[in-house]
Amino acid sequence: MLTPGSKTSAFFLATLLILAGCAVGPDFHTPPAPKTNAYTKKPLPENVTVNENGKKVVQTFRPGSDIPGEWWTLFHSRALNGLVEEALKSNPNFKAAEQSLLQAMENVGVGEGSFLPSGTASLSTTQQYFNGAAFGAPFLSNLFTLNTGNVSVSYTLDIFGGIRRQLESLKAQAEYQRYQLEAAYLTLTSNIVLTAIQEASYRAQIAATQQIVNVLDRELSIVRHQYDLGYASRTAVLTQETILYQEKALLPALEKQLAFEKHQMAVYLGRFPNEKIGDDFRLDELSLPKQLPLSLPSELVEHRPDIRAAEEQLHSASAQIGVATANMLPQVSLTGNYGSESIEGYFSPGSQFWAWGPSVSNPLFQEFTLYHQKKAAIAAFRKAKDQYKNTILQAFQNVADTLRSIQSDAEILNVQTSAEKAAQESLHIAEHQFTIGAIGYPDLYNAQRTYQQALINLVQARANQFSDTVALFQALGGGWWNLPRATPKGVKLANATR
């Protein structure tokens, strides 16, 4: 039979349980995708044709097609595939991103623990001496031992959803770290491929420069011979020597840049710069992908890990408004206490005591502070919302830039291929004409300079076509969604195409 006091407590608890179904603060909803159906103002061509190393390569844009998770295999380089896989296993930054995700996931576990009761158990033994002389009864003096056992349990009722909102924020932070891991995966794989391309570019520029040096050295012999015969001036010999030495001076600078790329690659692989990192890369050994998958604009917000990470930051900031709101409201707890106190032993019959009941606490003299904490949370949410919008705008700009670059690179590469052929033929004619005395040295000098610049420009144009193709895959998100979900152990790769 319920007593009046117990009826009151039961009604109080029922009321609290009904209220506990609510959570203050805004409920988060994923922002709608941008209402745009194109990346660029001008329509995108169906394909671009590239004169790659004497062969016509057609790169076709495939709107709506999906990007493979291991997009780098489209360059058909076994050495490159191997380096990417090794980097994903050994790169310190990538492993640190894994641990950040693990830390965030464990923090979610901490937040979930807030829904459980908290309790303490204690046992204590105290010896006490009672002196009866103080009461005129020395015969009552005695030494006795007091044994106390106590179990206390407390449970906070999440009436207004503050704990739920805090857990919601922690889960959003964990998802943020998950997308940060995906972004680290995309950045690392892209950097490996770009570094390999830069290495190949510098190696090609060194070979081209050495080729030019050989041409200039041969022509210096011709000029000297002309000088010995009286057909060329001493100034012409000195000018040719100057050109030759200036060209040779370019080699150390290019070799330095090549060494820097090798050092960078070693760091990406988690190695020291003095360690061997595998085969050398050359542009002729890489293949331009013929198919260029292009995500639809409406899908980009789902594919870019930086956008997804910004969305989770927005989600976390939204939940913090609920936390700040709940802190302004009363906090309700249930507490229970059970134990015994006896000189005969722990939990002796008749020595038990217990107590239980709800308690309500309400902040006093903190309204000003709590009010501004809530306003700060709202401002943080608005800031996160603006940052989210800016991330989307930058992502679309990134894709638009790379699409335009690929088109421009193709045009430049085709022109530079023709320019190099024309400059080389012009140089051969100038050399022959100078040998037979049909032209003077200034004409030969101009032909040399034109060929030098055309050859280097061609190498750089080829490298740019590869680099901007990589940039497109990166700008579209890199296909991470086609791989197993990121875990603290890292992104597990499927078997690469070998």
From TrEMBL:
Pfam families: OEP. This is RND transporter. It comes from Leptospirillum ferriphilum YSK. InterPro entries: MdtP/NodT-like, OMP_efflux. It comes from the Bacteria. GO terms for molecular function: efflux transmembrane transporter activity. One of its GO terms (cellular component) is plasma membrane. Gene3D superfamilies: Outer membrane efflux proteins (OEP). Keywords: Lipoprotein, Membrane, Palmitate, Signal, Transmembrane, Transmembrane beta strand. Residues 1-25 form the signal peptide. It is found in: Cell membrane. Belongs to the outer membrane factor (OMF) (TC 1.B.17) family. The keyword Ribosomal protein does not apply. It is a lipid-anchor. Its main location: membrane.
